[in-house]
Amino acid sequence: MRLGFSLPVFGKAAATPGGIARYARAAEQAGAASLWVGDRLLSPVEPEVSYPGYDTMPEEFWTAQDPFVALAVAAAVTETAILGSSTINASQYQPVNFARQLTSIDVASNGRLLPGLGIGWSPDEYAAVGIPMAERGKRLDDLLDLLDAWWTQDVVSHEGIGYTVPRTHVDLKPVRKPPVHLAGFGERAQRRVAERADGWLPVWAVPEQFPADVLTGGLAKIRAGAEKAGRDPQALSVALRVNAAPGTKPELIAESLAKIAPVLEPDHTFVDLTYLTGSVEEHLDLTGRLLELTARG
């Protein structure tokens, strides 16, 4: 198993000066195959919708780094690790700036960017950026159209939702067209993955909260939808995020990985360390321990 890990973009570790660069460099040297960011704009004291499984927002999200900056920093200090997001709440961003940022990161990393996108769930965050939450799905579809043009056409024009791109030269291209992965378990979200994405972003929990067939069944449904849309279903990639609850022992995480990986056969697997560590040092220690345990099994 080629295992990846979350960068320290949330919690106390995220506030460490130079912490992201230090962790990214050391994790790659230790054998991490991929490095990942999440996206949290706000952590409201009294959220309109609480974080799933909590009455409010987890304390880890009180400190949050910008995902684009974190990816750029990681690109500068690593050579081989895939740089992914799971997920960036794409429809909360201005699309033209978003396209330029992703392209720049892919060029900086020599083609290692794996953009994982979603639409988010927080009404407070949408209110903060002045975007109607009800439009988030169609705004994501619009963004996917723009990204396709931005990455494949030398002269781009686009009529978007609330913005217009006149005919403009776009000579900065990614090293290769980044494989856009999309998140979601709902019917519309999975249909979008099947019809438009290069891959899917499922989530596995440790301790386990649902049976593995929730993921395998979802993937089968997505691939059937891709075939119906005239696409190659086997070309769809899978980037699995493993969320471990606070206090979870690394042995249990490794045991759960050994169970889910052979069943789902993901192309990329990473462990989110957000709830398990409080410092960059702990982030690195746990990374080394999990790499050791998974190498054994």
TrEMBL record:
Answer whether the UniProt record assigns the keyword Oxidoreductase to this protein.
Answer: yes
* Pfam families xref list: Bac_luciferase
Q: Which domain of life is it from?
A: Bacteria
The Luciferase-like domain sits at: 5-257
- Keyword ATP-binding on entry: no
Matching InterPro entries: F420-G6PD/mer, Lucif-like_OxRdtase_Rv2161c, Luciferase-like_dom, Luciferase-like_sf
**Assigned keywords, A-Z:** Oxidoreductase
Q: Which NCBIfam families match?
A: F420_Rv2161c
What the entry lists under PANTHER family is as follows: 5,10-METHYLENETETRAHYDROMETHANOPTERIN REDUCTASE, PTHR43244
Name of the protein in question: F420-dependent oxidoreductase
The species this protein belongs to is Amycolatopsis magusensis
